[in-house]
Design goal:
The chain has a single domain, classed as Alpha-Beta Plaits (2-Layer Sandwich). Helix content is 22%, strand content 16%. It is built from 3 helices and 2 strands; from the N terminus they run ααββα. Strands 1-2 form a two-stranded antiparallel ribbon. β1 and β2 form a beta hairpin. The longest helix is centred in the first third of the chain and has 5 residues. 14% of the residues are buried.
């Protein structure tokens, strides 16, 4: 399954913040790139690998 978190391919992220909003550990923040577009960044120390961020992503394969 291709998703932004695994590939960091900006074409796989629309910046909708769905992943950030669904995270039960609140470990996803949105950071702007040089063009001003926001992308999710996961704090791996807080992440419990529940997969909800990928499941809710409208751009992840299978969604």
């Amino acid at each position: 399954m291709s998703n932004y978190f695994d590939t960091k391919d900006k074409a796989l992220c629309c910046g909708c913040t769905a992943c950030k909003n669904i995270c039960p550990k609140q470990c996803i923040s949105m950071e702007e790139d040089k063009d001003g577009f926001s992308y999710p960044v996961i704090d791996k120390d807080k992440c419990i690998d529940c997969g909800l961020c990928v499941k809710v992503c409208p751009f992840a394969d299978g969604n």
